[in-house]
Write a structure and sequence with these properties.
Elements: H1 2-33, H2 42-65, H3 74-107, H4 113-124, H5 126-142
Helix pairs in contact: 1-2, 1-3, 2-3, 3-4, 4-5
Amino acid sequence: MSNNLAVWSFVNILVLTFFTIWTYSITKLLIEKNKYDSSLKFNPFKIQLIITNIYIVAFLLYLIFTNGNIEEPKWMLLIIIMGHFFLSWNIFYFMRFIAKSISTVEFKRECHFSDYLGNMVLLVFFPIGIWWLHPKIQTLIKA
């Protein structure tokens, strides 16, 4: 069990690393192209991304070192539950921020939720949505 958990955790950290690099780079490039919506700030996004990655890596390391036994100590389960609520909110925030950045640069104006909902739905379906969105993002960055 411990060896499988360690491999699973390592693979998750590897995927997280690539996804973080992709998210950071496209968002940075899109924000540089954004001249239409001043509410899209890159620094809060970057801080949230760092905090989220620290939590995920810490959680995976905790699972490795405790062999998946999250019941000891008892207070750790509460921290994990609260951390996962925070993680869920951050994932929603990232998808919203990226989708809004794409739509803002694409439409060349400040966008509302209905404008970027389609991009956000594509981001929810991770690999398929990225394959669909990435050519559009590349076109927007090159323009």
